[in-house]
């Protein structure tokens, strides 16, 4: 029983279950299945960091590569107290499917450090980042594995990683990370890319659903990098953003939120709660509001068997990785809610990261308009491929996305002749 409970909470076990479901639909041969359901490499590092008060703290970090048969490994770096090897393995596997479903030539990876970055001074954060980058340097590099920002990391963190790798190499290795500031080889449009992708896909899904509301309403859980871009871009596209939340709670105004005023409030108060032009709601209440679109853009396991039957949105665009649990998936599907699954919904980030890497390798940079047009093309194509798979095979959208992705990775694995 205890083991069962532990397994059901393992993020990697959940990722494997989702893979198994797709492998069953595809009737994937046992050999290929065995290889794809495990990660290729996992590195754990423990490293010291000098704090400002002179004390030395020991931190633990990870870098995991799940699969590199379609190209170099790609995946973000997360700074959070919730980071564990199990979670990083799950997120690395997710990256493999994400890159495959949108058809970019990468495998999947993920990294992280067990730390709450808000507890560190800027100097401590820089020391920690440089030390972690040095520890994982044996795995990363433009042809091998290219990190990017994720929860708790920023373009500044990417700049420190790139600088550390470059110091070791003796020259600037701009293509070693993506999500960097534009001044050092970052891409136009990268900052908003994940949120822009969520926006494009939400609009495409609403079109498909023939949403009848004159002004569809939106609730966004998580007001970080992805959540803020998504809220702003959906509002610019004519939707009404009525609720947002962060880890301190949420705010709701059925007439729509003034996002500019909310940003000012947050700067001052450190969170969205207490915003005068809206009512406070709890994080859980936000997920159950009567809206057209719900965008979970915070963290894993937010919509589960605990609350999936109370979600009122017609469309969920799953911006945060694994925001819906497998049990939540079943309930939402049975209730007829339409889900744009994480590996597709938030792929905008990795697609523009791919564009950034290509630009760095060629030392030839594109305008933002060109990047957004290409992003729209890649995501819309992937959306309809997933939708057709879902309709043709009579499977839900998540399974359809996995089926497409797993098939592509399995093809690459087989054609390379490594595993017949
Ligand atoms: P972030 O650290 O910038 O923001 C996370 C936000 O979520 C913060 O506002 C935090 O307060 C809030 N939050 C945390 N727990 C919460 C809770 N229980 N309820 C409500 N809000 C909560 O992180 P981000 O980069 O915006 O990433 C968000 C999600 O999107 C993650 O799952 C990440 O893996 C995924 N993602 C990010 C990118 C990217 O380019 N940044 C790309 C693809 C996927």
What features would you describe in this structure?
The protein is 47% helix and 17% strand. It has a 7-stranded mixed β-sheet. The chain has a 5-stranded mixed β-sheet with strand order 1-2-4-3-5. A hairpin with a 2-residue loop joins strand 7 and strand 8. Helix 2 packs parallel to helix 4, helix 4 crosses helix 15 and helix 7 crosses helix 14. The longest helix has 26 residues. The two termini are 37 Å apart. Nicotinamide-adenine-dinucleotide binds next to helix 8 and strand 7.
Q: Enumerate the distinct ligands.
A: nicotinamide-adenine-dinucleotide
Counted by DSSP, the helix tally is 15
Radius of gyration: 21 Å
Helices and strands, in N-to-C order?
HHHEEEHEHEHHEHEEHEHEEHEHHHH
Ends distance: 37 Å
Estimated structural class: alpha/beta
Strand arrangement within the widest β-sheet reads 9-8-7-6-10-11-12
Helix content: 40-55%
Largest sheet, described in full?
A: 7 strands, mixed
Mean pLDDT: 95
Outline type: globular
Oligomer: single chain
Quick summary:
This protein is of the alpha/beta class and 420 residues long.
Key traits:
binds nicotinamide-adenine-dinucleotide, five-stranded mixed beta sheet, 420 residues, 47% helix, alpha/beta, seven-stranded mixed beta sheet, disordered N terminus
Give the helices and strands, then pairings:
Blueprint lengths: L1 H8 L1 H16 L3 H7 L4 E10 L5 E12 L5 E8 L4 H17 L5 E8 L7 H15 L8 E5 L5 H15 L20 H20 L7 E5 L3 H12 L3 E7 L2 E4 L6 H11 L9 E3 L1 H5 L5 E4 L18 E3 L8 H9 L3 E3 L1 H4 L2 H15 L5 H26 L3 H19 L5
Parallel strand pairs: 3-4, 3-5, 6-7, 6-10, 10-11, 11-12
Antiparallel strand pairs: 1-2, 2-4, 7-8, 8-9
The structure holds nicotinamide-adenine-dinucleotide.
């Amino acid at each position: 029983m205890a083991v069962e409970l532990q397994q059901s909470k393992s993020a990697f076990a959940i990722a494997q279950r989702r893979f198994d479901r797709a492998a069953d639909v595809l009737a994937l041969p046992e050999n290929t299945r065995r290889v794809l359901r495990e990660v290729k490499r996992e590195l754990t590092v423990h490293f010291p960091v000098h704090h400002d008060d002179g004390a030395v703290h020991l931190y633990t970090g990870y870098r995991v590569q799940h699969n590199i048969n379609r190209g170099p490994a790609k995946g973000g770096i997360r700074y959070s107290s919730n980071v564990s090897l199990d979670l990083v393995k799950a997120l690395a596997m997710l990256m493999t499917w994400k890159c495959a479903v949108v058809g970019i030539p990468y495998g999947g990876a993920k990294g992280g450090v067990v730390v709450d970055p808000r507890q560190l001074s800027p100097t401590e954060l820089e020391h920690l980042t440089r030390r972690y980058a040095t520890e994982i340097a044996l795995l990363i590099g433009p042809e091998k594995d290219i990190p990017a920002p994720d929860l708790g990391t920023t373009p500044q963190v990417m700049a420190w990683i790139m600088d550390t790798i470059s110091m070791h190499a003796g020259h600037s290795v701009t293509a070693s990370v993506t999500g960097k500031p534009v001044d050092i080889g970052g891409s136009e449009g990268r900052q908003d890319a994940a949120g822009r992708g969520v926006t494009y896909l939400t609009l495409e899904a609403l079109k498909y659903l023939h949403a009848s509301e004159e002004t569809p309403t939106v609730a966004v859980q998580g007001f970080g990098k992805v959540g803020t871009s998504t809220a702003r871009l959906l509002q610019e596209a004519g939707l009404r953003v009525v609720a947002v939340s962060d880890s301190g709670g949420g705010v709701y105004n059925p007439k729509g939120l003034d996002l500019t005023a909310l940003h000012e409030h947050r700067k001052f108060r450190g969170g969205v709660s207490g915003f005068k032009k809206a009512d406070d709601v709890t994080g859980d209440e936000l997920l159950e509001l009567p809206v057209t679109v719900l965008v979970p853009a915070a963290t894993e396991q937010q919509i589960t068997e605990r609350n999936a039957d109370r979600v009122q949105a017609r469309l969920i665009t799953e911006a945060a990785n694994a925001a819906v649990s497998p049990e939540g998936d079943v309930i939402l599907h049975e209730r007829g809610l339409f889900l744009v699954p994480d590996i597709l919904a938030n792929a905008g980030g990795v697609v523009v990261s791919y564009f950034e890497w290509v630009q760095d390798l060629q030392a030839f940079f594109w305008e933002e308009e060109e990047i957004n047009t290409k992003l729209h093309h890649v995501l819309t194509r992937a959306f309809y491929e997933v939708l057709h798979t879902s309709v043709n095979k009579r499977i839900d959208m998540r399974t359809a996305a996995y089926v497409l992705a797993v098939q592509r990775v399995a093809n690459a694995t087989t054609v390379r002749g490594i595993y017949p």
